[in-house]
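> Could you send the Zinc finger protein 513 prediction when you get a chance?

Sure thing. Input:
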Amino acid sequence: MDEKPFRCEYSATQLEHLKQHMRIHTGEKPYRCEVCEYSASRLDYLKRHMNSHTDEKPYRCEYSAYSQLAHLKQHMLSHTGEKPYKCEECEYSTSKPGDLKRYIQTHTDKKL
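Output:
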C-alpha cells in the first residue's frame, strides 16, 4: 500500500507536492517574472511563461513552432483530425476546447 503521510482534502506522497497543491487554496504565487507583473504558484509555470518574452519556440511540427508544448499538442490535432472535445447535448465535436465552450453557448442562448 502506498503510504501518503501528508494530507489535504487531497493526498500527496511528498511534502513538496503538498506545498504546491496547497498554493491552489492559498493563492500564493511566490515565483515572479522579472519582466512583467506575472507571478506563478510553481517554478515550471514561470519558466513556461518566460518563453512569452522571447521568440523561443522549441516545440515544432513540420509546419509550425510553439513556445509551449500544450500549444503544439493542440495544433497536432489539426493534422490527425481528432476532435476530443464533445458537446454533451448533441453530436458536435471539435479539436479546440475554446471552440466547444463557445458552441455550448448556442444551446444556452436558445433556452433563454
